Amino acid sequence: MSLNLPVLQTERLVTRLASHRDVPAIVRYYRQNQAFLTPFEPARPDYFYTDRFWQEQVERNLIEFNYRQSLRLFVFDAFDNQEILGVINFTQFVEGISYFCYLGYSLAETAQGQGYMTEALGVATRYVFDQMNMHRIMANYMPHNQRSGNLLRRLGFVVEGYARDYLLIDGKWRDHILTSLINPQWRGEISP
Fold first, then answer.
1. Which terminus of the chain has a smaller tally of CB atoms within 10 A, N or C?
2. Of the candidates 19, 141, 144, which has an alpha carbon nearest to the alpha carbon of residue 76?
3. What's the average model confidence in pLDDT over 171-186?
4. Other C-beta atoms within 10 Å of 39: how many?
5. Measured at the alpha carbon of residue 145, what is the angle toward residues 171 and 184, in degrees to the nearest 5?
6. What is the mean pLDDT of residues 5-28?
7. Contact in structure between 179 and 156 (CB atoms under 8 Å)
């Protein structure tokens, strides 16, 4: 089974799965933003910042997409396809009785406050709803990360709860606010 690879374009951005030729840009993105992203992400081993790791990860991302397990996208500047502005990961796809997935994302420090992630997530969530037929996308953020909370609110995510010691971020268990976005156009599978 092989799905068509999404290339989601807006006026300023191209959001797509990475290819092997993108590996130097991916490594550069994570290295340049390492200090900025550390308070918001799990601890990363040194090999995470290497070409070898990302050559393998690019292949794994494609396999997971083809098996409808994840959709791991990179947000590129439409005018410079070698500059990655952000990352959008839809993971842990569950189908059958629930049709949901989780969303995680990051944006380069230099790209903050320009509406890039709102723009990219707008087209990415539409793709996950319309093309992958997910019913529900769940995204969680730490209470002190109001920028992320505001972004999710702008996109229509609704707060559903509060989870104590939810994720191990930057070496500590962190509380998270739980949110979700529901697909109002979900196409249910009709049994014969």
1. C
2. 19
3. 95
4. 13
5. 115
6. 96
7. no
Q: Which residue bears the tokens 């995680």?
A: 104
Q: Closest by alpha carbon to 18, among 116, 89, 68, 69?
A: 89
Helix (H) or strand (E) holding 182: strand 172-182
Q: Which amino acid is at 190?
A: I
Mean pLDDT of the chain: 94
Domains, in order of start, for the chain? 7-182 (3.40.630.30)
Q: Label residue 189 by pLDDT band (50, 70, 90).
A: low
In sequence order, what DSSP letters do the residues of 138-167 get, joined into one string? EEEE-TT-HHHHHHHHHTT-EEEEEEEEEE
Q: d(Cα 36, Cα 8) in Å, to the nearest integer?
A: 26
Which pTM does this prediction carry?
A: 0.94
The order of strands in the sheet holding 7-9 is 7-9, 13-16, 71-77, 80-94, 100-107, 136-141, 172-182, 158-169
| Cα–Cα distances in angstroms (integers) from residue 173 to residues 31, 39, 164, 176, in the given order | 24, 12, 8, 10
